[in-house]
TrEMBL record:
This is histidine kinase. PANTHER family: PAC DOMAIN-CONTAINING PROTEIN (PTHR43304:SF1), PHYTOCHROME-LIKE PROTEIN CPH1 (PTHR43304). It comes from Alicyclobacillus fastidiosus. It catalyses: ATP + protein L-histidine = ADP + protein N-phospho-L-histidine. The keyword Cytoplasm does not apply.
Length: 591
């Protein structure tokens, strides 16, 4: 009955049972060797065990057999064994010496278990750890010892895989992070989850970022071990830092370029703004929710440009480019000129779902372009003036001389005719003088002056003309206005020209108000009349050579004034409403 039981075990056990004789040959191999390795037991009988073990694993086999022959109870070794078809399988072997009478060395009984699948899984796990830079570890809390996987050693940059102590581990934690790691370890002892991100210093001095986390294993009520993983996140940190730097650089570039981005969720009718767009509108980020498209347009778009916005959005939702210039209202009530471009995103059904793009403040750019155009106009006018003045002045001198001679003999109506001729010739001479001012640089002497004194002298000059035209002039000037560096006579010419135009714009009388402001190193002078005003299409051309709104004007007065103000590093702006009047604002730098 006992032999039948042994035979039943022998035939059904999946492990290979083998007995090695004292001389190293197989004395017995169980039948399970055939389905595992393809050998019939009789094929291995009398052959050496070393014949089918992988050459690289024979040393491990020798060590295990030597240990059990030397008195160790159980020998354990893992090796690769060659299948009959030539491939190798992994086996875990447990062996023990069997002593029999008269056998000095003793035979060895072994049980071999196929662990090929397990080894494959372990190798895949190790490969996955290497690829993901994830190592596994175990901390025996009672023994205060650490066990590391091979990938842990690679992450820390250790050449050997010698046993790791907690103190050795902590010695490679960055000094600035060590207290945080120790605190996390202490929290584990109190039952908290272990999860901490820190830096390590490899033996080479290289800095790496890692993230460790673990789970606790209890033995009764006490913590027995903590096991977990550690991932090298250095590349992630570098990418994160590069991305953060890139975002910071983008924000800085957008701030410098006055460029922001926006995104309209069409489905939910919700608009998102970048921080720079908030700055363009004069708001602090998060100060006000943008809301829907209608709320945005009503709150931030100039009333005259709202129809253009809706028209452009409608076209963009059909696939047309979204590209327009408009005026936006700032929190302080001022307007800025912006350039908006966008693109529409559609879903798989062709329905618009998002409209996103950029917005750039081009106010300064347009002002600069306008100054350049004005400068070009002045340059062209100067070149033209030089030619005209040269051709006219010489014959004009001759004509004036002969008219003067002939007028001395004139009588009656002829005397009136000569007086009229003299007047018109003087007018021609005045125009030529203005042309000469444009044609060549003037010899000027800049000095520190009080602008209030200059205005008082100008008002004395034009006061009588204003009274004759039933025009009153009032002034509201700051008591303590700083000095300006200017050429006094040229500024007088500008102020006289402005006041003269205002008086002529009110043939039935009216009021001219002059006021001043001082802000950020500049003095502002504002001349406002109650005249007929200038239509917008004509206002755009004011300052062009020989363009005038007056029947008998030359179109040079405003141009000359603009040139004088530019020479003083100032600005001159003209605004007007038909039926309401015209306002000229001049800003000049203070000393």
């Amino acid at each position: 009955m006992t032999s039948d039981v042994y035979e039943l075990i022998e035939q059904n056990i999946q492990d290979v049972i083998w007995i090695r004789s004292a001389d190293g040959a197989y004395e017995y191999v169980s039948p399970s060797v055939y389905p595992l390795l393809g050998y019939q037991p009789c094929e291995l009988m009398g052959t050496s065990i070393w014949n089918i073990v992988h050459p690289q694993d024979t040393e491990c086999l020798d060590d295990a057999i030597s240990e059990v022959q030397g008195g160790k109870d159980i020998g354990l070794f893992t090796c690769r064994v060659r299948h009959k078809n030539g491939r190798y399988l992994w086996f875990e072997n447990r062996c023990k010496v069997i002593h029999s009478e008269g056998d000095e060395c003793g035979r060895i009984l072994g049980v071999a278990r196929d662990i090929t699948h397990r080894k494959r899984m372990e190798d895949q796990l190790l490969s996955a750890e290497r690829i993901a830079h994830v190592g596994s570890w175990e901390w025996d809390v009672l023994q205060d010892t650490l066990s590391w996987s091979a990938e842990m050693y690679r992450i820390f940059g250790f050449d050997d895989e010698a046993p790791i102590s907690v103190s050795r581990f902590l010695s490679h934690v960055h000094p600035s992070d060590k207290s945080r790691v120790i605190q996390s370890i202490r929290r584990v002892n109190m039952g908290d989850t272990y999860s901490v991100e820190y830096r390590i210093l490899r033996p080479s001095g290289e800095l790496r970022y890692v993230h460790a986390q673990g789970e606790i294993v209890y033995e009764g009520d006490a913590i027995r071990t903590v096991f977990g993983s550690l991932q090298d996140i250095t590349e992630y940190k570098r990418i994160e830092e590069a991305l953060r730097t890139s975002k910071d650089n983008l924000k800085l570039a957008q701030k410098i370029a006055h460029l922001g981005h926006w995104d309209w969720d069409i489905v939910n009718d919700d608009i998102y703004w970048s921080d720079e767009v908030y700055r363009l509108t004069g708001l602090h980020p998060g100060e006000r929710a943008v809301g829907s498209l209608t709320e945005f347009v009503d709150a931030f778009v100039h009333p005259e440009d709202r129809a253009l916005v809706y028209q452009s959005v409608t076209a963009a939702l059909r696939g047309s480019p979204y590209d327009l210039e408009l005026r936006t209202l700032r929190a302080d009530g001022s307007y800025r000129l912006v350039h908006v471009i966008g693109e529409t995103a559609f879903n798989s059904d062709g329905e618009p779902i998002r409209l996103f793009g950029t917005v750039q403040d081009i106010t300064v750019q347009r002002q600069t372009e306008e100054l350049l155009r004005t400068s070009e106009k002045l340059s062209v006018a100067g070149q033209l003036a030089a030619g005209i003045a040269h051709e006219i002045r010489n014959p004009l001198t001759v004509l004036k001389g002969f008219v003067q001679i002939l007028s001395c003999k004139a009588q009656g109506k002829d005397e009136q005719h000569f007086a009229l001729m003299k007047s018109e010739l003087s007018r021609i001479e005045s125009i030529v003088s203005e042309l000469l001012f444009l044609a060549k640089p003037q010899c000027t002497t800049f000095q520190h002056q009080d602008i209030r004194v200059i205005l008082e002298e100008v008002l004395t000059l034009v006061g009588s003309q204003a009274t004759m035209k039933s025009v009153s002039i009032s002034t509201v000037l700051d008591d303590h206005m700083p000095l300006i560096h200017c050429e006094c006579n040229q500024l007088k010419q500008v102020f006289i020209n402005i006041l003269k135009n205002s008086i002529e714009a009110m043939p039935d009388g009216g009021k001219i108000r002059i006021s001043s402001t001082v802000q950020k190193g500049r003095i502002g002078l504002r001349f406002a009349d109650e005249g007929e005003g200038i239509p917008p299409q004509r206002l755009l051309r004011i300052g062009e050579p020989f363009y005038t709104t007056k029947p008998d004007g030359t179109g040079l007065g405003v141009m000359v004034s603009q040139k004088i103000i530019l020479a003083h590093n100032g600005t001159m702006n003209i605004s007007s409403l038909v039926g309401k009047g015209t306002t000229v604002t001049i800003f000049l730098p203070t000393v």
